[in-house]
Amino acid sequence: MSAPTLPNWGRVSSKRHSTSSNGATSPYGDSALVAECQRVATAAPGTRNTTLNAAAFSLAQLVAVGKLDEPVVRRRLEGAALAAGLERDEIVATVDSGFSAGLQAPRAAPHSDRLHDANEALVEGFNQLDNEGWQSPKRPSWRDQIFTAAALQTMKFPLPQWVIPDLIPEGLTILAGRPKVGKSWLAFDIAAAVAGGRLCLGSRKPEQGDVLYAALEDNPRRLQRRLDRIFPTFNGRWPERLTLTNAWARLDKGGVQHLKEWADGVASPRLVILDTLAGVKPIRTQQGYELDYAALEGLHRLANDRGFGIVVLHHTRKMEAEDPLDTISGTLGLAGSADTSIVIARSSQGTTLYVRGRDIEEAEHAISFDKTTCRWAILGAAADVQRSKERNAILAALDEAGEAMSPEAIVTAVGMKRGNVDRLLGKMVTDEEILKVGRGLYIHPNHATADHR
């Protein structure tokens, strides 16, 4: 039996090319094209979409300076991606994304006669692959997977893509909170914003696209009532790009495959919401980190391969914890498998939205819920908002007392920790919000006399 034919994208001419004004490939560009196509074709599952995007970005940089011809690059990247197992629709979208970023960052190629020798070496290598059989590539050596810090310094990567700007990036996100804290209202508002092209959480405008919301604890009547609050009837038709369901297969019983089929059937999949994890998580008789991690592994791979967001709603434990991620019900395997974790927590100081992830800076936002519209809004950084509330509490206590108070009396009146009260009293005196009228005594300006000033 003869060896399988090498795909067109893997062939490279042994003749040296010259760069011309019509965009013909250069030796350097030709070598880069073959190398990137090989990386795409042999990318491991879970990394294929990211590898294709990075390859498109890198090669587009050379297209921008005339070292490669764009139609040739696109055609060969498509062939490599098809060989890797990606599907044509997602290939086109991923290559478009990489090209869009790469063309904005042109990269000059080095000029050296040694490039010709490198090109010839690639030809010899591909001939060897042709003889040995392209369909059975060898497992990459560890030597092929390492790079130096100096090389990393000059690498160019596409910026993270956001479902909700600076809050939910593409990939897998866990949204956790106590029962009835308002997780579903937040998820519905996010879904409506993405599908309908409108703002959410106050002023955040997502990229519009198709959304699938699996409301596994609701029924059609409750869904209609929820959406009627978020989309008042006088605002027109509800978005066609928001698809709803009250049932979905468990992740180990076809659920992940069904999500892939949904994504294949819409024009621009941007977001999937699974409400809640309990409705789709594989049923296990045992628990453990590895089992929790494995439960979401298929979702993580799908979201990152296809370049859209999957948000899974889950509960937090009753027990408090210093680290908000420790409050997520189950083992740390759930948070470990997610690209981003978001925790809604309510306390005497208000409600916060804590965010931590691989592509997002750790942040804690103060949020408020409008009971009329059933929509959440971000008020600002939690520390800033809560600090203002604490100052207001101290001012109210001093005003109500009508006379000078000691720190101990203020602690009793406002229910705060002594250290926090001492710290704030000093700042409030500096900011002239209150007056210090003696050793360890403070008074509200409304009750201060001339002797106090």
Explain how this protein is built.
- The chain is an alpha/beta fold.
- It has 14 helices and 13 strands.
- The protein has helices at 27-41, 48-64, 70-84, 88-102, 114-132, 149-153, 183-196, 220-230, 255-264, 289-306, 332-337, 382-401, 407-414, 418-430; strands at residues 162-164, 168-169, 171-177, 210-215, 242-245, 269-275, 309-315, 340-347, 350-357, 363-370, 375-381, 435-438, 441-443.
- A nine-stranded mixed beta sheet has the order 5-4-6-7-3-8-9-10-11, sandwiched between helices.
- Helix 3 (70-84) crosses helix 4 (88-102).
- The N and C termini lie far apart (101 Å).
- Mean pLDDT is 84; it is low at 1-24 and 111-115.
Salient structural properties:
single chain, 453 residues, alpha/beta, Rossmann fold, Arc Repressor Mutant, subunit A, 3 domains, nine-stranded mixed beta sheet, two-stranded antiparallel ribbon, 14 helices, 13 strands, 16% strand, elongated, disordered N terminus
